[in-house]
Amino acid sequence: MTIRCKAAVLRTIGAPRPYARSKPLSIEEVTLAPPRAVELLVRIAGAGLCHSDLSMINGDRPRPVPIAIGHEGSGEVVEVGSAIDDVRPGDHVVFQFSAACGRCPRCVEGRPQICEKAAAAKAAGDLMAGGSRITALNGERISHHSGLSCMAEYAVVDRGSVVVIDRSMPLANAALFGCAVMTGVGAVINTARIRPGDSVASLGMGGVGLSGILGARLAGAGTIIAVDREPVKLEVAASLGATHMVCARDADCVEQVRELTRGGVDYAFDQAGTTDSMALAYAMVRYGGTAVVTGLPPSSAAFSINQCDLVSQEKSIRGSFQGSCVPVRDIPRFIRLYQEGRLPIDRLIDGHIGFDQINAGFDKLQDVKAIRQILTPHGAS
After folding, report:
1. Quick one: pLDDT at residue 381?
2. Strand ranges (DSSP E) for 183-283?
3. pLDDT in tens, 104-127
4. What pLDDT, on a 0 to 100 scale, did the predictor assign at position 75?
5. Which residues in the chain come in under a pLDDT of 50?
6. In the Cβ-directed half-sphere of 193, how many Cα atoms lie within 13 Å?
7. How far apart are CA 250 and CA 241, in angstroms?
8. CA 282, CA 254: separation in Å to the nearest integer?
């Protein structure tokens, strides 16, 4: 069915701060076309405010506008396309922001998170079947964000963008499993394959970085070092399982990590997505160690390394997109760990907000005054 609903639409990139005043996100009535055969209509329960959204707003990673934003979310299925027989209306789902085609070379080799067809569709602001389902009331096309656009009351998405979850999971809070948890925990478990006793440094204690701390504890890492510029975030990391805290503002922060680990960590995770944090992560790695990059920097950013060190110290650098996850496998198992009390993601949530607070919410995120705020488009449940 065609419906009208509210959505957060980005029309201005690089608006001046504070966003609460300049309002780069306008809350608009939009029209959603009915889902095609391989698509679903979902009523949104929660959508997390993430740095990946902020990077579009502030211009670090610009996208063609207008675009309805939101890539980390959850909701309840309302309608399913005619070709779908494994999802039903009423199912609770978590979104994943890289729907896989199952047929491209990357999917065939078991890496659906970097599906080539999905990447092309996302770059165009389309769904996998082609085109956008979102229009302004005047008929203007509005692009999809990562095939989701879940900062809205409803979204039409690809079948491959949803993972059905246990109905006992609080639905709004389940949004975090679609990005923060999947990326942070997945990087530790899937990309790095941390082993019991390994030493880890995690740089950037946002939602992804703190999820990485939880993942390192789950994997049995012996030394877990949290690195951030903000003392309050280091305190949160300590409460979630970090064994040591290092302030990134300290001129000798690399030396502190090396001293704690007798030469450097086995794995350093750049969760902040800046060239400075990447340089620190690389410097903190021991001989033979690995720097894992999960944070997305500005699209023009470039990172340089000492090639001699790379060879003579046999270091490695690995990228980790979406935590190298297979979402249909990993999201349910991460939720089971949450239900067992081993992934307390509730402690990453600063609160639930409405559409009227969304621009101010991104101010808080930019000013490092929040970890994860969740937009609840239909109000608190």
Report:
1. 54
2. 199-203, 223-228, 244-247, 265-270
3. 999 998 888 889 999 999 999 999
4. 98
5. none
6. 1
7. 22
8. 10
- What is the β-pairing status of strands 92-95 and 73-80? antiparallel
Asked if residue 202 lies in contact with residue 223, where contact means CB atoms within 8 angstroms, the answer is no
Instruction: Find where tokens 């809350």 sit.
Output: 27
Question: CB–CB of 51/365 below 8 Å?
Answer: yes
pLDDT at 61: 86
Neighbours of 247 (CB within 10 A): 14
What's the confidence (pLDDT) of residue 327? 94
3-class DSSP string for 181-204:
HHHHHHHHHHHCCCCCCCEEEEEC
pLDDT at site 286: 97
Residue 280, H or E segment: helix 275-284
Question: Which one, of 325, 371, 331, 316, lies nearest residue 187 by Cα?
Answer: 325
Residue whose structure tokens are 């679903």:
40
- Residue 212: alpha-carbon gap to chain centroid: 12
Record the tokens describing residue 4, joined without a space.
């009208």
pLDDT of residue 153: 98
**b/e map of 119-150 (b: 16 or more CB within 10 Å)?**
eebbeebbbbeeebbbebeeeeebbbbbbbbb
Q: What is the DSSP letter of 270?
A: E
| Alpha carbon separation from 32 to 8, 65, 137, 170, 190 (Å, rounded) | 14, 17, 10, 26, 36
Are the C-beta atoms of 317 and 289 separated by less than 8 Å? no
